[in-house]
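Entry for the shared binder. Reason: the reviewer on the internal report wants the predicted structure included alongside the sequence.
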Amino acid sequence: MNSAHPSSSIRQPLPERMVGALRASLSLILMSLNTLVLCIPIYLIALFRAVSPDGLKPTWTGALRASLSLILMSLNTLVLCIPIYLIALFRAVSPDGLKPTWTALAMSIAEHWISINNLVLDAFQTLDIEVIGLEELDQRAWYLVVANHQSWTDIMILQRVFNRRIPMLKFFIKQELIYAPVIGIAWWVLDFPIMKRYSASTLKKKPHLRGKDLETTKRSCERFKLTPVSVLNFLEGTRFSQAKKTSSNSPFEYLLKPKSGGAAMVLDALSDHLSQILDVTLIYETKTPSFIEFLMGHKPRIIVHVDAIPTSEVKSVAMDLDGSVSNRKTQAFLNERWSRKDRLMGDLLEHRS
């Protein structure tokens, strides 16, 4: 990684960075139009499929289904980003006291975006999702949501399950992604938590930056106190695979080792606000799909098991006597939860088989 990149982006004035983000957004819009034009061969695929032998038809059907889903979701994103951009402008010039109001309005638009994406999925396939444990959730409360990570589809499944049951899910993003086309500005106005990291070479050259990345993330978490929020943290840090399990010496059968850093930070920042910690277990029966395979049509059952843990229970085992959150105690707590989760996955998979 180029160590000069983080510092150079910091030196750029905000208007220049925003112009760059808008320029990138327009580029993506043009590329989306290109995608629409290229729908012509997709329709030709539909024609070829109609005259193909039965053995080839599932392949053509899946490709058409995935293509149409991606196009409609992209259009949904482009259209609903327009009011998000307007909110970003109003929020930038508003006094601090009004900023939570603009954020709440942006979250409402994002919830509509999730609902439309769900309608797109339902238009092209029938998902079999079994949800266990969604009782007594509150859209006006604060939650820390921790989950195992198996596929790029995990976020879509969780958004589908929790949309309008709890505040919109937000997850940690790298600071560089704020400048991503279209969605970068949306993440900023939605107050997604920003995670900033300096490379080892940068810290060696500029030791005064040590600890600044943690300060940036903590400041981001402080804004969570202003409006109800659900912070999503995939504690394993990466998607599960047998190769990763072996290389990391994971003691679990179906999981990688959990990491406590992000969870401990949220617990520390929101210890007086959190209503519950939601421990979510995602299980894909038969096969874990890739994102494209999911859009092509996923028939096996998906199980989402939600275990609500009172914040007081977590505080009693994760906090030191001075009231601060201990990384070591949090890690021990999560290890125990992951052992339970691993047993639960084994029991459910064995029972269903």
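Summary line for the report: Confidence is low (pLDDT under 50) at residues 1-10.
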